[in-house]
Specification:
Elements: E1 2-6, E2 23-26, E3 34-37, E4 53-56, H1 66-71, E5 75-77, H2 84-99, H3 102-111, H4 119-126, E6 139-143, H5 147-158, E7 162-166, H6 172-177, E8 183-184, H7 188-192, E9 197-200, H8 214-219, E10 224-228, H9 237-246, E11 249-254, H10 259-262, E12 267-269, H11 278-298, E13 318-325, H12 330-340, E14 345-353, E15 356-363, H13 369-376, E16 381-387
Parallel strand pairs: 1-2, 1-3, 3-4, 4-5, 6-7, 6-9, 7-8, 9-10, 10-11, 11-12
Antiparallel strand pairs: 13-15, 13-16, 14-15
The protein binds 1,4-dihydronicotinamide adenine dinucleotide and 2-oxoglutaric acid (AKG).
Amino acid sequence: MYRIRTLNNISPSCREILSAPDYELSDSEKNPDALFVRASDLHGYPFNPELKCIGRAGIGVNTIPLEECTSKGIVVFNTPGGNANGVKELFVFALGMASRDIFDGMKWVYSYDGSEGPIETRMEKIKKQFAGPEYAGKVLGVIGTGNVGSLVANIALDLNMEVLAYDPYLSVDAAWKVSRHVQRISSLDELLKQCDYLTLHVPLNEETRGLINDKTISVMKNGVRIINYARGEVVDEDAIIRALESGKVARYVADFPTERLVHTKNVILTPHLGGTTIEAESNCAKMAAKEMDDYLRNGNIRNSVNMPNVYLERNGESRVCVIHKNVPGMLTKIMTVFSRDQINIENMSNKSRGEIAYSVFDVNAKISKEILHEITEIDNVIRVRGLN
Ligand SMILES: NC(=O)C1=CN([C@@H]2O[C@H](COP(=O)(O)OP(=O)(O)OC[C@H]3O[C@@H](n4cnc5c(N)ncnc54)[C@H](O)[C@@H]3O)[C@@H](O)[C@H]2O)C=CC1
Ligand SMILES: O=C(O)CCC(=O)C(=O)O
């Protein structure tokens, strides 16, 4: 039985996959085989030695110390595309909020005390202060056209916007999802100087931290409207506040409130709601549950962000899974242990990802603890699991 510790509220749909008697889910397990998380920050988290994998029900993994996990042989999974439609739907709302002063208009409605006459007549007199431009016919720049950005770019075309996209790392699979009417721009500055609206859909990493800063803002049109449903830190906070105060940026709509942003004019904030729909939560929980289940029971790795993906149909009496450094001679050393004990390899797979490699062996015998221990002792082996 595998013990899974949930660190956030995970959709109950994961229990369709992670159920008794194979699994026990709890939010207090001290020595879990797996952690199931949403946006919890795991930097500094005390990983127990039994921990084999982390399932991130969502896409962003900036909250997970990936290097530490890799060095400890902990496989980290995420759920690409599982919440993309949820973010796209909120983007449409954000686009409206970026254009029209809906937020201040609503605040006025709910705080009006009747002192200047009935609300029905008073509102007709003051409503012009909440006017704003229409977005149809305007230029939208999309930075990052992966699972979310591709949906956003396509729906913006349906809303009659002209759409420009910048994504220097776009995968071939993701490129297929973007409409041919979206114009690919290969220079960020070239995109920035043409946009009336800008929307961000990149992961937070060392390259994208502060991507929107004084310098990039200076290239933009005056009165640009920026939407950030990626991560707060992709936008330099000092720079965006300066630009809002000067009027260079007309409005900033973001999913990542901070104390300072809450008190800045022309900022509209939602409380990290992009992936918070019934469907997105259920999709992500099921996807992460399937990934962890296939890894824990079969050693297969799919949608990992720190290990190579390896899928092998089960074949043979038992399976030995070895996470090791990607250095010469590892397979020979491991296979020598099998052949010395007359164990035949029925099928195998070996894949690498940067400095790490993963080898899976299906063998024709039950694997003893002694053999597993011997493989563990080989130099540059990080973790060994035997699945009988
Ligand atoms: N507000 C929320 O609740 C949610 C926020 N997110 C955020 O949105 C981000 C994107 O989500 P997905 O589209 O699902 O991820 P994804 O991995 O499918 O797409 C990310 C895209 O960004 C591109 N990219 C990476 N670095 C870039 C750079 N420097 N410049 C331009 N493009 C770059 C990649 O090539 C990729 O196509 C996530 O990493 C996460 O931080 C995602 C889901 C929900
Ligand atoms: O709501 C969540 O769990 C986080 C969604 C998100 O930000 C992501 O998937 O990257």
